[in-house]
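User: My collaborator sent over this chain with a note saying "see what the structure looks like." That's all I know about it. Can you take a look?
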Amino acid sequence: MDFEGIYCFDTASVRFAFYPDGDDGARILGLVSEQTLRDVCGARDGSSESLLATCRSHFSLIRDKAIELYFADPSRAVVLTTGDFARPAIPAMQASMVSSQAAGAAAGA
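Assistant: Without extra context I'll predict from the sequence alone. Here is the result:
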């Protein structure tokens, strides 16, 4: 499936189309916020072209999350924010920091 999207200045987001039932199924529109494209996908430039390019290059991630949210509640608008994406590296880093702190405390005791 090809990426279909436009940047919406009024909502600071990219509106995109996705097809939860495959390419021949219903066309659903979703939004992904500019902040999400920065936080999750690493968009650096705030220009509409850059944000669209970031959305296009990370579309499989964005589409999969949109489909998940759509099937969870088809009557609800699909608006993706940073909180919708799990960041497994963060808990792993926190666990590492906790074990390092515990080791340091045990050494000082």
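A starting point for your reply to your collaborator: The longest helix spans residues 89-108.
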